[in-house]
Amino acid sequence: MKKRVLLALPHLRSSPFGFSEPLIPNGLGFIASTLERGGHTVRIVDNYLPPVDTWKSPVNYSEELQRFEPDFVGISVNTIGFGEALELIQITKASCEATIICGGPHATLLPTTFPRDVDYVVIGEGEIAVLDIVEGQIKSEFLEDRYVRYPEVANLDDLPMPAWHHFVGKDYQWDISSKFSLAPPTFSFNASRGCSFRCKFCSIRGLWETYRTFSPEKIVKEIEKLIDEYGARSIYFREDNFVLSKKRTMKFCDLLRQEGIKMEWAIEARIDIVKDKDLLGSLAESGCKGIEVGVESGSQRILDLIDKRITVREIEEFFELSHDLGVSTYASVIYGIPGETEEDREQTESLLDRVKPNKIRRGVYLGLPGSHFYEQLLRTRDYERIEDSGIIYPKGYRELAGRIYDQPTNDRTGRAI
Ligand code: B12
Ligand code: SF4
Fold first, then answer.
1. What pLDDT, on the 0 to 100 scale, is given for residue 14?
2. What is the pLDDT of residue 20?
3. What is the pLDDT of residue 18?
4. Hey, CA dihedral for 269, 270, 273, 277, is it positive or negative?
5. CA–CA separation, 85 vs 101, rounded Å?
6. Gap from CA of 78 to ligand 1 centroid (Å)
7. Does residue 269 line the site of ligand 2, with CB under 6 A?
8. Given this model, what pLDDT does residue 247 score?
9. Which CATH number fits domain 4-156: 3.60.21.10, 3.40.50.280, 3.40.50.620, 3.40.50.720?
10. How far does the centroid of ligand 2 lie from the alpha carbon of residue 350, in Å?
11. CB neighbours of residue 59 within 10 Å
12. Rg (Cα) of the chain, in Å, rounded?
């Protein structure tokens, strides 16, 4: 029997990181297309979107539930939005009879923190798990109590591409010129999952078991569809490491050129991989206009401490090459890694002065579950405070954030902390 499924993202009232990038939620897009391929009816309510369509008054969300009458409600939860997700769960429970399913990074990293009102907590990849829950055929070997953990799909090409029709025409960030000057509308696109590195501040190792990619052929076909059906003029590949496989990346660039696709695009990449002259040259030639890289620190001591596996010299080489090739760069650095000193921070500023990225994002480290440093902080208790969601504010966070963000540091309810 065909079912009605409402998929929702919680709003964020405030965030210690800032939350100014309302991009298409690819994860929900993949789940929606998988359900629609099975003949089910899907509605996506993205409360993260400005202007918040159904959240401003929670009554609107409950009206939406009453209007759509879903059989299932699926809520996508990041650690940062866990508090708001709890409110969505409460409203859902009070407004309809739907079975409640939660998934996403927080469900994967801290599944037992969800209240009993949640009928299923999906750990890891969601497409097949949600489809089987909705169709009443969860495989018993992947279900324990209410926790569902399916193996990762071996070949990502077997999945349908995101159900873009849910997002087109809505108030997403179609113009990302604050980061890279790409011709709008820019579609954000997730073309790989996972990462084979293990940087100690990053929770990716807890989220995806293996590194997998869509094939270059499938990505190029989808780009053609985005151009033809939705007038896409650029693509922003939002994923951990677009270039992990040099062979796949070169093939993708070749295909774009062979097909004569004049598409501007941007990626996120690791410096040690993308500083390769052939690779960067090929990216530039086939339309890649911008690369976001995790510089993290200008201190080799910190780069080694976080197990980044890059050197300061490699960072310098990457920026020299990208400036030569005219590829715009967006450098992300983190301050406040446990063990960092004032001298390390000076080295970071000095490196940024030398390499001159086109744009810089300075963040202050917060502990998110699933990372090595998170577990270390839990053990050493070297923190100012820990939120109910699990987020850890390391010692010195407040003072450093005040300096780096140059504004009073608020907690997530808006109170000064
Ligand atoms: C693109 C992206 C963003 C976009 C999100 C756009 C959007 N609306 O979704 C933007 C820029 C807005 C963003 C913001 C932030 N992000 Co972000 N982001 C990513 C990134 C790079 C890709 C996400 C993605 O598309 N993945 C691909 C899809 C297929 O995976 P997915 O979304 O996880 O969905 C799958 C499963 O999780 C699951 N699933 C997801 N939802 C649901 C729902 C149900 C019901 C079910 C059953 C399953 C399920 O099934 C999906 C399909 O398999 C990830 C890293 C990563 N590789 O996942 C970080 C990541 C999700 N972000 C992270 C963080 C920390 C942030 C910020 C706090 C950063 C900041 N500086 O502000 C904010 C917080 C925003 C928030 N609302 O919480 C962390 C989250 C960690 C955590 N514990 O929650 C991640 C994992 C990065 C990391 N390495 O730590 N992010
Ligand atoms: S920071 Fe980037 S390279 Fe390091 S583990 Fe996370 S996703 Fe991989």
1. 61
2. 60
3. 52
4. positive
5. 12
6. 7
7. no
8. 92
9. 3.40.50.280
10. 23
11. 11
12. 21
Going from the Cα of 105 to the center of ligand 1, the distance in angstroms, rounded, reads 6
Return the residue whose CA atom lies nearest to atom 75 of ligand 1: 19
Strand 288-296 and strand 328-335: pairing? parallel
Of 238, 370, 373, 369, which is closest to residue 296 (Cα–Cα)? 373
Encoded tokens for 334: 């983190």
Provide the phi-psi class of 72: left if phi over 0, else alpha when psi is between -120 and 50, else beta: beta
C-alpha 38, offset from chain centre:
26
CATH superfamily of this structure's domain 174-405: tm_1862 like domain (3.80.30.20)
Using DSSP, state whether 152 is helix, strand or coil: coil
179 lines ligand 1 (CB under 6 A): no
Ligand 1 site, residue 194, Cβ cutoff 6 A = no
Q: Does ligand 1 lie within 6 Å of residue 80's CB atom?
A: yes
What is the model's pLDDT at position 317? 98
Ligand 2 and 294: CB distance under 6 A: yes
Q: Are 4 and 68 a contacting pair, CB within 8 Å?
A: yes
Q: Which residues of the chain have pLDDT under 70?
A: 13-20, 50-59, 407-417
**pTM recorded for the entire structure:** 0.94
DSSP string, 187-232: EEE--EE--S---TT--HHHH-SS-EE--HHHHHHHHHHHHHHH--
